[in-house]
Write a structure and sequence with these properties.
elongated; 536 residues; six-stranded antiparallel β-sheet; Neuraminidase; Immunoglobulin-like; mainly beta
Length: 536
């Protein structure tokens, strides 16, 4: 058997500074104030531009020169929250060619319309095919919301803000016959121009508009459905203090009241005419909007793509003002864990979108760029090599492995374990499921025989260890051994002198030992065996 003597190895794998968990990669550029991104069930991405255009990015990431739709002359985009704001393709778009938009008309009111794809060219829409489904008077130029999406049930959902100014002066969020400050659900496959789904929550309530699915929203600028579970996620833009994420499970029958203007986030705002707190559904997450954290939430999506498993199942969202991105996920105990992913410090990220495969993109309204959201490989943990006798082992779970000696690939060394047969500098390169290639720190080893130290066997377990490990060795004949544990700085943190020993077995307990990398050195007659150990 050939054990290894480890002369030197590095410690960056154990001590690292915080890294951004994601990075934003420019996917396409050259757009004018992009505010929405979606797909039509194929490889293309459709980008909504605020002035009244919808453009196409082909499957190779190249913007097409001609807009898919141009309704600039019908759109009022003068104010910051007006314009062509949202796009949704019919679930049967491939066959019927229908898509739906939310825009501000020239009177300053919200218009929900249906358009049709050109019969002659799939990359062009027919601007003359407009069917106006609904127009809603907007008393002010802000808080118009703008998103619309088809739910798993095939109905069209769209959100409207409270109509503007500050503090909801018209109390739109709690006025049940007003469409403002609500989430709506309509049937676009029946009726003229639409029908009310028979199971809408207020369909039999004469005091509430039939279209309403949920109420008490201030400005649900962006919302989405989890493509796996059907849950609805709403990013509701706050007033003076709080931004919020509202959650509606797929099992909901609708009718939730999310509290505005009685509540902003979890805090009371204007209690005039409000019911008891039990009347309202609290957000699952809030954050302050009056500091550097942010001031305007950009609701996102639950990531269901396959390219970046590290993000899978997490709700990814951002703040327009601060440029911060976060993930939100269940904590397994009925609560939620919010984690900052990156702080870009850019005030421009206004909308997320998914491609057909569930990969995430985000629009930069100022730069005109469409960014792909991807895992930051620099933040992924570096693989750590462990050793047992003459076998080097890398952590399990990677997609591929390649062992290197002196920086050069070793032929047929593509497994998680490798047997060292010669001295040199060994490392391993792995590929993970996030598309990242990661390299371990190099280790300098000398392959020696146990017999040179007069040993028949030597073992250390477990390795890595947590507080204690067992050292065992058997000598060919009795002898004097010096055993010591040395840290990265060369300091001896534990030692034992054993005289006249032929067999040694001891549980070594070091509960106060700092986490990191160590060398276990066994000396006899000027010769030594060195084993790398890792304290977790």
């Amino acid at each position: 058997m050939k054990p290894i003597i480890l002369i030197a190895f590095l410690f960056a794998a154990f001590f690292s500074t915080a890294q951004n968990a994601i990075q934003l990669e420019v996917y396409a550029s050259g757009f004018s104030q992009p505010v929405d991104i979606t797909n039509a069930g194929d490889e293309r991405l459709f980008v909504v531009e605020k002035a009244g255009y919808i453009s196409i990015i082909d499957g190779d990431g190249h913007p097409l020169p001609q807009p898919f739709l141009d309704i600039d002359s019908r759109v009022n985009s003068v104010a910051s929250e007006r314009g062509l704001l949202g796009l949704a393709f019919h679930p049967d778009y491939e066959n019927n060619g229908y898509f739906f938009v939310n825009y501000t008309n020239n009177d300053g009111d919200t218009r929900i319309s249906r358009f049709s794809r050109s019969a002659a060219d799939p990359n062009l829409a027919d601007p003359n095919s407009e069917l106006i489904l609904l127009e809603v008077d907007q008393p002010y130029s802000n808080h118009n919301a703008g998103d619309l999406n088809f739910g798993p049930d095939g109905y069209l959902y769209f959100g409207l803000g409270d109509g503007g100014l500050g503090g909801d002066p018209l109390n739109s969020g709690q006025t049940r016959m007003a469409l403002l400050g609500k989430m709506h659900r309509i049937d676009v496959d029946n009726g003229n121009p639409y029908a009310i789904p028979p199971d809408n929550p207020f369909v039999d309530d004469d005091s509430t508009a039939d279209e309403i699915w949920a109420l008490g929203l201030r400005n649900p600028w962006r919302f989405s459905f989890d493509r796996l579970t059907g849950d609805m996620w709403i990013g509701d833009v706050g007033q003076d203090s709080w931004e919020e994420v509202d959650f509606q499970p797929a099992s909901s029958a609708g009718g939730e009241n999310y509290g505005w203007r009685c509540y902003e986030g979890l805090a009371p705002y204007n209690s005039s005419g409000c019911g008891p707190s039990s009347s309202y559904v609290s957000p699952i997450h809030v954050y302050a909007n009056n500091n550097s954290v942010g001031c305007s939430i950009t609701g996102g999506f639950v990531y269901r793509g396959s390219a970046f498993p590290a993000l899978y199942g997490k709700y990814i969202y951002a703040d327009y003002c601060s440029g911060r991105f976060w993930s939100l996920e269940p904590d397994g105990q009925g609560g939620w864990v919010n984690t900052e992913l990156i702080n870009t410090t850019n005030s421009e990220f206004v909308s997320f979108g998914e491609n057909k495969a569930g990969e995430l993109f985000v629009a930069g309204i100022g730069s005109g760029n469409i960014f792909r959201v991807r895992v930051n490989c620099a933040a992924q943990p570096i693989p750590v090599i462990t050793a047992e006798d003459n076998v080097l082992t890398a952590p399990a779970g990677y997609v591929s492995y390649q062992w290197l000696l002196g920086g050069q690939p070793i032929e047929d060394a593509a497994g998680a374990a490798f047997t060292a047969e010669e001295s040199g500098s060994y490392s391993v390169q792995v590929a993970d499921g996030n598309g990242c290639t990661l390299a371990s720190e190099a280790v300098e080893i000398i392959v020696n025989s146990l017999e040179s130290l007069g040993l028949r066997a030597l073992s250390v377990s477990p390795n890595p260890f947590d507080g204690n490990f067992r050292l065992e060795f058997a000598a060919l004949q009795p002898g004097n051994f010096r055993i010591r544990l040395q840290n990265a700085e060369g300091q001896v943190v534990w030692q034992r002198n054993s005289h006249g020993v032929q067999e040694f077995s001891e549980q070594i307990e070091l509960p106060g030992l700092a986490s990191g990398a160590y060398l276990l050195i066994v000396d006899k007659d000027g010769r030594q065996i060195v084993r790398p150990l890792v304290k977790q």
